[in-house]
Amino acid sequence: MKNKMIALLLSALFFSGFSQNFKFEHTGARAAIVSKQKIKEAKLLTELMPNYNGEDAFIEILTTVGGNETSAGSTSDLLTQEQKNLLNATSMGTDILVKIKYKNNSTGINSGKELEFVLTPGPETDAQYPGGNSRMSEYIKENVINKIPETKAFALDKVSESTALQKVSRITVAFVVNEKGEITDATINRTSADAELDELVLNAISKMPAWTPAEFSKGAKVKQKFIVSIPFKGGC
């Protein structure tokens, strides 16, 4: 029974960069990680957004700086000084929302065609678990799956195959890999509704071996925040 749970957990285990300060919610907006150096050197919006062709438009850049939501606008691909300042002031890991409202070629007013794009300032090299994602999956198997009590494993595995997809729950943990590669600030973002499982996952994440820290192009190490999401049968 536990083997079935292992297969489900490891097939769906994933982790990704986490944006810690962004407050705007936009379903379907496309996202891209852009290095701080590239943001600093950019003069045109097209240098940061490959999906934007530079066509005349009303452009608004929104982000969070110092806990405050801030925006800066323009009417062309050329970044204004205000927009550059805003982009450069945005902390790594904080999402930047770019709203593009295209102009009507004949009237010069809003045509109704819009594009939204999310840029996230980040390091050139992401932090990495020793040995990569496959080794991290092995660690989760050894330190989470194999430690779930048989009685709990049986209870979670009672769900029939026909309803399994409807009964998949997920534990999500956020954590920081600091400049030394150490795991800090691990917290439950999404509970499994089972305190024992939550504690098991949180402890495993907190005790992971040191990662290779994220770094900028010139070799400076930087902390980076991640989320780990682990699905399992059962839950509500």
Describe the structure.
The protein is α+β, with helices and mostly antiparallel strands and 236 residues long. Helix content is 24%, strand content 33%. The chain is built from 6 helices and 11 strands. Residues 1-12, 14-30 and 154-168 have low confidence and may be disordered.
Short descriptors:
disordered N terminus; 33% strand; 236 residues; five-stranded mixed β-sheet; alpha+beta; four-stranded antiparallel β-sheet
The secondary-structure class comes to: alpha+beta
Low-pLDDT sequence parts:
1-12, 14-30, 154-168
Q: What value does the average pLDDT take?
A: 76
Specify Rg, calculated over alpha carbons: 22 Å
Q: How many helical stretches? A: 6
Quick recap of the structure?
The chain has 236 residues and is of the alpha+beta class. It is 24% helix and 33% strand.
Topology:
Blueprint: H1 2-12, E1 14-17, E2 30-35, H2 36-41, E3 57-65, E4 68-74, H3 81-89, E5 96-103, E6 110-122, H4 133-143, H5 150-157, E7 168-177, E8 183-190, H6 195-206, E9 214-215, E10 221-222, E11 224-233
Parallel strand pairs: 2-6
Antiparallel strand pairs: 1-11, 3-4, 3-5, 5-6, 7-8, 7-11, 9-10
